[in-house]
Design a protein that fits this description.
Blueprint lengths: L1 H10 L4 H11 L1 H9 L8
């Protein structure tokens, strides 16, 4: 589940390393959280 969380977060534009750590620690909770994140948008 941790790898899935990191993958979902990366696809939405978040830091892969950070989410991989959270995913390995939190597993399902991290996956649910990553699934609910809104995609990042670049504002210039």
């Amino acid at each position: 589940m941790g790898l899935l969380a990191a993958r979902v977060a990366k696809r939405k534009g978040y830091n892969l390393s950070l989410w991989l750590i959270w995913g390995l620690i939190g597993g399902t909770v991290a996956f649910v959280t990553a699934s609910r994140l809104k995609p990042k948008t670049d504002v210039f």
